[in-house]
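Figure caption, in words: inputs first, then the predicted bound structure.
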Amino acid sequence: MIRIEVDLAARSYPIFIGSGLLRDSALLGRAIKSRQVMLVTNELVDPLYAHFVEEALQDRQLRKVSLADGESRKTIESYYQILTALLEAKFERGCTVVALGGGVVGDVAGFAAASYQRGVSFVQLPTTLLAQVDSSVGGKTAVNHPLGKNMIGAFHQPSAVIADLETLNTLPPREFTAGLAEIIKYGLIRDRDFFDWMETHLDQLLARDTATLSLAVRRSCENKAAVVGADEQESGERALLNFGHTFGHAIEHAQGYGNWLHGEAVGAGMCMAARLSTRMGNIAPTSRDRIINLVARAGLSTEAPESSSRAQLLEAMSIDKKNKDGHIRLILLDAIGHASIRDDYDEEALLEVLGPSATFQAA
Ligand SMILES: NC(=O)c1ccc[n+]([C@@H]2O[C@H](COP(=O)([O-])OP(=O)(O)OC[C@H]3O[C@@H](n4cnc5c(N)ncnc54)[C@H](O)[C@@H]3O)[C@@H](O)[C@H]2O)c1
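Bound structure (nicotinamide-adenine-dinucleotide present):
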């Protein structure tokens, strides 16, 4: 079992990574400390993995909420469903909310934990690749608003993250591939060696080889923990984790939540950001091509969907938490392994990377 610390003074917590960790009742029992426990999962993950948690916590006062599945259910209504369950169970401030599932369950349950009685303990049991390498670590919680993704939320750190690699065996291929986008992201923004490693180990990763997966999840969590430890509330470096996400969120929004998976949109978004970085003369065309090639080999789209016009994407990009004084700010690359937040990009070049102009005129 691998253990990584997220170093945040009084809010520090461990990330445990390994195969079969959900079967480890003692580990679950130690990580989830309270008597009252609200297990939040969804209708798909519940029959697969909830019994491990239920068995491990037999001696606790355990209640369960099983949400409807999908990004389209990352809503204030799902959040409210959890709050109602907490109130109906008369759970007190000392309770723990446990998220068992992917990033959607983690984000909604985390927001409920952040706000129930002004904040209760929270433990993450991520079961998708994306959640294990990214969303379960760092304390960002949110629900979507019809006008913008993740627009309602709070920072609320978990007290532990337990990533059981065995759960990835049941993950559909499309979801697994979506998680690869966030892994590639760490290499691009701050870990050149990891990017090089991904180029040589992608095939083993796609085959879900346990040792390769373990290394990829570990290195991703180490990168995320380092960034979050240095900038918990995103006043600086943490914004770099949004590489590809401004474009990606716009694609998700323009296509309707759930049609493009988050990771799929981030994969295309990273390629768009790489193209813009090259247009600005920041990275060589050869670097851009390496990035696009790796994203394509992972099985991800490298372009924005043709059905979203430039105007739609631009409109969606105008609602982004990084924007300042009405100006879209973007994370762009200075090299493979180094990124910065920029607002000095060429507007024409931005329009070009958003897609063919014909769709723009038609909009
Ligand atoms: N909080 C953060 O820092 C952060 C970071 C990145 C992404 N996110 C958010 O995460 C969400 C995406 O997360 P996701 O990709 O995990 O999507 P998801 O939560 O929708 O899960 C993907 C699908 O896989 C299913 N599933 C989960 N675990 C499974 C398993 N082990 N076997 C079979 N099926 C399983 C889910 O039910 C769902 O249908 C987005 O809403 C995104 O905004 C948050």
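The domain at 173-362 is CATH 1.20.1090.10 (Dehydroquinate synthase-like, alpha domain).
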